[in-house]
Amino acid sequence: MIEGIGLLSLAIWVPIAAGVLILITGGDKNADGQRTLALLGSVLGFLVTLPLWTGFDNASAAMQFVEVAEWVPAYNIHYRLGVDGISMLFVLLNSFTTILVVLAGWAVIKVRTGQYMAAFLIQSGLLNGVFVALDGMLFYVFFEAMLIPLYLIIGMWGGPNRVYAAIKFFLYTLLGSLLMLVSLVYLYFQSGGSFEILAWHRVPLTMVAQTLLFIAFFFAFAVKVPMWPVHTWLPDAHVEAPTGGSVVLAAITLKVGAYGFLRFILPILPDASREYAYVIIALSLIAVVYIGLVALVQSDMKKLIAYSSIAHMGFVTLGFFLFNPLGIEGGLVQMISHGFISAAMFLCVGVMYDRVHSRQIADYGGVANTMPRFAAFFMLFAMANAGLPGTSGFVGEFMVILGAVQVNFWWAFLAATTLIFGAAYTLWMYKRVVFGAIGNEHVAEMKDIDSREFVVLGLLAVCVLGMGLYPLPFTEVMHTSVENLLAHVAHSKLAY
After folding, report:
1. Distance (Å, rounded) from C-alpha 125 to C-alpha 88?
2. Are 361 and 440 in contact (CB under 8 A)?
3. CA-CA-CA-CA dihedral for 239, 241, 243, 249, to nearest 10
4. Considering Cα of 220, then 288, then 345, then 110, what sign does the dihedral take?
5. 3-class secondary structure for 158-173?
6. Is the dihedral of CA 174, 175, 176, 178 positive or negative?
7. What tens digit of pLDDT does each residue of 368-392 get?
8. Is 447 within 8 Å of 371 (Cβ atoms)?
9. Beta strands 77-83; 64-72: pairing state
10. Maximal C-alpha separation, the chain
11. Mean pLDDT rounded to a whole number for the chain
12. pLDDT confidence tier of residue 466, bands split at 50, 70 and 90
């Protein structure tokens, strides 16, 4: 195991440093150099995370690659970093996605190119900070700071209603974050003046305190997931965001909310988690069934995929509150898989939008006639989004359904309807957009994907198929940490 060389700090600060360097290299006159620097920064940011995978001890549930330094000694706030089997994969997923976003915006973003690339690199570092922070206040700083680049990305490079969507996104997420801040301060005093998250796992709390903290943390993380009914900001944000913004929002940012459930709610508030699990399960099943039906009637491809993301993330929160290994590991696998699939789906919509400048399903038809290579990629990702066996989209959902069967057959039955609704809205969209006769002159003029787009979609295709056919490398990383979490949650922390 590799320790003491600052791998986690590199994962945070290499992309941030690259982003800052891009900002000081001049305006749009140096756009080509800024693109190249962004690509180098994103690739280097990903390479420094690879030793986390190769040096990770799958048999240990302890935090690994730990770094500790004083930050604000007066209040016992530390720069404390570490990863376990629950968080490590998200650092790799985030860093990998950043490369794709830089490539996807290479030829598309022509105004304030450097600022666009820098925003994604800085956000990549901040998101890594969220996943590796082991100090409550450090987590909060990264948790809030990551909103700023995405707010700017939506507000500056988005669609006609971008300002409305950016402000709605910011206000929704900020309200929940303020409740979380109050909870962090309360835990600080209850633990005798420590912001160490792992120390909070051992603090005895009354049921009243656990309930109030559960409500506060729930709102903070449920908005980020987003869970029904606090999901309405997501479709607006996706529709107005540029393609890269939608990719990062769906593939990574939504995972922060779900990650918060595993890092804070379950281990710190185990009694409240068991007591109110039925609430989370009910909201998750509503998201799976109801939001799946909402997706069916969408005419905008981006909005359809956005609602699809809400339904798929419902599987994640459902799995977490089944309190069995299959459920939690299935939820984690679903998070990683959804990162690949949602990124691919939004990139496919972006490819078409760059050519026709429309996201409306009705404005297409017969795309396979003019873009056969693209149609093949899009078919693979559509099938994965529908949960086809052999793709990553099937693995996590199947694990959660198996976990649900162990607890309640009808929960599993309702969750399994996503395999029907997901196929319905995804394949119906694909049929109307890709098959049939050429719909109009705009479709007739479309050119097939170039080498850059082929590389981006090809990398995601390898990930979707690789994880679908051989998920073991992912599940074996998380298994020990999940078992340890469940053992911890099984014990009461009530203070009498």
Report:
1. 14
2. no
3. -100
4. negative
5. CCCCHHHHHHHHHHHH
6. positive
7. 888 889 899 999 999 999 888 889 8
8. yes
9. antiparallel
10. 73
11. 85
12. very high
Q: Tell me how far apart the alpha carbons of residues 189 and 9 are, in angstroms, rounded to a whole number.
A: 28
C-alpha distances (whole Å) from 431 to each of 331, 368, 427 are 29, 10, 6
Between CA 307 and CA 292 the distance in angstroms is 7
Q: What is the Cα–Cα distance from 488 to 270, expressed in whole angstroms?
A: 8
Structure tokens that stand for 74 in this block = 């007066």
Residue 389 buriedness (CB in 10 A; 0-12 / 13-18 / 19+):
exposed
The string of pLDDT tens digits covering residues 260-272 is: 899 888 898 888 8
* Residue found under tokens 């939008």: 353
Q: Which of these ranges, 43-47, 98-102, 447-451, 491-495, has the smallest mean pLDDT? A: 491-495
Averaged pLDDT for residues 125-139? 91
Banded model confidence at residue 58, pLDDT cuts 50, 70, 90: confident
396, 327 contact by CB (below 8 A): no
Q: What per-residue confidence (pLDDT) applies to 3?
A: 40
Beta bridge partners of 64: 83
CA 173 to CA 152: how far, in whole Å?
15
What does the buried/exposed string (b/e) look like for 91-118 if buried means 16 or more CB atoms within 10 Å of the residue's CB? bbbbbbbbbbbbbbbbebbeebbbbbbb
As a whole number of angstroms, the distance between CA 89 and CA 91 comes to 5
Say what angle helices 88-104 and 325-356 make with each other, to 10 degrees: 10
Cβ-proximal residues to 461 (8 Å cutoff; 6+ apart), any chain = 344, 377, 380, 381
Three state DSSP letters for the chain: CCCCCCHHHHHHHHHHHHHHHHHCCCCHHHHHHHHHHHHHHHHHHHHCCHHHHHCCCCCCCCCEEEEEEEEEHHHCEEEEEEECCCCHHHHHHHHHHHHHHHHHCCCCCCCCHHHHHHHHHHHHHHHHHHHHECEHHHHHHHHHHCHHHHHHHHHHHCCCCHHHHHHHHHHHHHHHHHHHHHHHHHHHHHCCCCCEHHHHCCCCECHHHHHHHHHHHHHHHHHHCCCCCCCCHHHHHHHHCCHHHHHHHHHHHHHHHHHHHHHHHHHHCHHHHHHCHHHHHHHHHHHHHHHHHHHHCCCEHHHHHHHHHHHHHHHHHHHHCCCCHHHHHHHHHHHHHHHHHHHHHHHHHHHHHHHHCCCEHHHCCCHHHHCHHHHHHHHHHHHHHCCCCCCHHHHHHHHHHHHHHCCCHHHHHHHHCHHHHHHHHHHHHHHHHHCCCCCCHHHHCCCCCCHHHHHHHHHHHHHHHHHHHCCHHHHHHHHHHHHHHHHHHCCCCECC
Query: Which two tokens mark 379?
Result: 């078919």
C-beta neighbour count of 257 within 10 angstroms: 22
Q: Above 90 in pLDDT, residue 462?
A: yes
